[in-house]
Amino acid sequence: MMFRIKKLDIFIAKQFGLLFFATFFICQFVLMMQFLWRYVDELIGKGLSLTVLAQFFWYMGLMLMPQAFPLAILLSSLIAFGNLGESSELTAIKAAGISLMQAMRSLIVITIAISCMSFYFQEYIGPKAFISFQQLLISMKQKNPEVEIPEGIFYDGIPGSNLYVQQKNMETGTLYGIMIYRMNGGYEDAAVILADSGRIQATAEKKHMVLTLYSGEWFENMRQGGMGVATNVPYRRETFSTKRIVLDFDSGFDMAEVGGISSDARSKSMEKILHDLDSIREFNDSVGHQFYAEGRRYTFERPSLKKADSTKLMNKAMIASLDIDSIYLKLTGEQKQSAMMQASNEVQSAVNDLEFKADYSFYLNREDRMHQMEAINKITLSLSCLIFFFIGAPLGAIIRKGGLGVPVIISVLVFIVFYILDSTGMKMARDDNWTVWFGKLLGTAVLSPIAVFFTYKANNDSVVFNIDLYKQMIIRMLGLRQKRHIAIKEVIIEDPKYLDDAEMLQTINADIEQYGAEHHLLRWPNPIKVFFRPGDDHEIDIINKKLERTIEDLSYTKNHYVMTDLNHYPVIATHAHTRPFRQKWLNIVTGLFLPTGIFFYFRMIRFRIRLYRDLQNILKVSKRLIPKINELGLIQANKQKTT
User: Fold this and answer.
1) By three-state DSSP, how is residue 476 classified?
2) Helices assigned H by DSSP within 142-252
3) pLDDT of 35 over the 80 cut
4) For residues 235 and 222, is the Cβ–Cβ distance under 8 A?
5) Are strands 174-182 and 191-202 parallel, antiparallel or unpaired?
6) Strand, coil or helix: what is 408?
């Protein structure tokens, strides 16, 4: 047995391993393409070398690998166990006495190893890749600024010059309405160049830029150096139809400084994050104490007062006790205006100071939250590998569909749910609307019970995706009526016992009349009895069983009129008119929770009214049907006597 299980582990591990490597590269490619759209403008038209592009995609791939692991595990485990179920291999495994958990144990070990690998990537490789990626991205933004010249504003990306372009033609590269300020000798000696249109191109060695201008004028001061006097300054004016200007610009690709990138939480390991959190919180506390102390200056309170300070406060208290309105009315018009302006300026200054401190405090708190979120994310992203496995493998065993059809759809839906929950939680926690732990653990907390549920159902061979089961559950919950459908049978072995059935229908009618006299279905029931006291309506259950046995026997008739009347009998709900659930504790919980209690209470009233109408309908149909089946019973009895 041990040898057979070991071979089974190897077999399942091979099936999973091949699928995991294939799905991992697919998921990695999809994530990279989705990520690439954010930076496509940084790549197009920059003249980047293949080496730089290779570095860009390499760092991007390293950053996205921990996100590709869970999705690949979900898809590969779903396909692997779906293939086993579709080929009946999973049925043979269970027939051999091997449970689903035993069949999954080798993959559980592999998934744990992948989870550890994911944490290793986030701890050591991910931060370095993030720093290199951001450093590369900053440098790419600084390359070939001629394609980044905006419309309608001055562009200062060219050293020593400010360039204004009124309009650009992206197809031809022509610039219209050009204005250039060249400030080689300072602002007072600037050259102003106006042109109707022009083109700008970088030289082959990327060291200069050639600006070709059409139909323009050149204005330039001739004074060289020194401030001097601002009058009688000679200047030069030139009108041209075509002019070429060479601008010094070294657009060679150089790696930008890391700078503030290293302070980002995504560029740090877990140990570094926890270490920096102490420093961040200590700094935040000191800033908070400083802001609090400064805020108290707007009041007369002081934590400790010297004699001079106490004298000042006494003077302020005396001033505060004066009648400000009477003093203000004694002022002249000019003095009133001056006082109002001074007060308004002081208030505006205080408001601006408080707004600045609020924004700065929010920024500091956000840095704290971002570090906490990144630390939690390293754990949850690794843990999601296990969660996705315990969703994918049981689902594959339940649906028993392999290939890339249904598994891909289910995987995408599960991942979208996880992504929405995780992204929503991250944004809410980042903006301090939710706590950090609640926001970052939202996706994990929602998917973990789902993984446990699917694993339990698959291990116990329970029905999960039986559409008819859920349809019946919805019908019972909403109280939807089911119609009776009885068709004439093609082969009848034994005819109905018409006389006995007629006698049984008469007994049922008598029982219904007695039941109606004893039970007042149209009265409102006592909520205490409904939710907090046990008890079922056994009488209506007995009546329903008698009716169903009679209908079952009469369904073997060949008479079309009898068959039509049988289909007019309603399907009775024997329980819903007494209480919502059969379990006592469920009724108590429903009654205590007012919204659901009100819903099920009115639902029960609806079923009581429906039961009353059904019983009245049974009486009508039975009174119409009894003479027919009595007549058929007499004919049946005469045939039996003659034979």
Assistant:
1) helix
2) none
3) yes
4) yes
5) antiparallel
6) helix
Q: Which range has highest mean pLDDT (145-159, 322-336, 391-405, 454-468)? A: 391-405
And the tokens for 271? Answer: 């140990």
Residue 126 reports pLDDT greater than 60:
yes
Q: What does the DSSP assignment read for 505-542?
A: HHHHHHHHHHHHHH--TTSPPPHHHHHHS----HHHHH
CB 392 within 8 A of CB 78: yes
- Name the residue with higher pLDDT: 528 or 252: 528
Does the pLDDT of residue 205 top 70, yes or no? no
3-state secondary structure of 525: coil
Lowest average pLDDT, out of 145-159, 418-432, 528-542, goes to 145-159
**SS3 annotation, 70-95:** HHHHHHHHHHHHHHHHHCCHHHHHHH
Asked whether residue 313 carries a pLDDT value surpassing 50, the answer given is no
Q: 462-485, pLDDT tens digit by residue? A: 666 655 666 666 766 666 677 788
Q: What are phi and psi of 240, to 5 degrees?
A: -140, 155
Quick one: DSSP state of residue 157? -
The count of C-alpha atoms lying within 13 angstroms of the C-alpha of 77, restricted to the half-sphere facing its C-beta, is 29
Please, are residues 591 and 597 in contact by the beta-carbon 8 Å criterion? yes
Q: Tell me, what's the pLDDT at 276? A: 86
Q: What is the residue whose two structure tokens read 């504790």? A: 585
Quote the CA–CA distance of 214 and 220 in Å, as a whole number: 18
Convert 261-285 to b/e letters by CB count within 10 Å (16 or more is b): beebbbbbbbebbeebbeebeeeee
Tokens 């039961």 identify what position?
611
- In this prediction, residue 185 carries a pLDDT of 56
DSSP state of 178: E
Q: What is the enclosing helix (H) or strand (E) of 147?
A: none
**pLDDT above 60 for 617:** yes
Q: What does the block give as tokens for 328?
A: 């203000």
519 and 601 in contact (C-beta within 8 Å)?
Answer: no
Tokens read off for 63: 């950053």
Contact status, residue 426 vs residue 440, Cβ threshold 8 Å: yes
Nearest Cα neighbor of 147 from 44, 38, 244, 49 is: 44
CB 399 within 8 A of CB 85: yes
Whole-number pLDDT of residue 383: 92
> For residues 598 and 590, is the Cβ–Cβ distance under 8 A?
no
Distance of CA 538 to the CA centre of its chain: 49
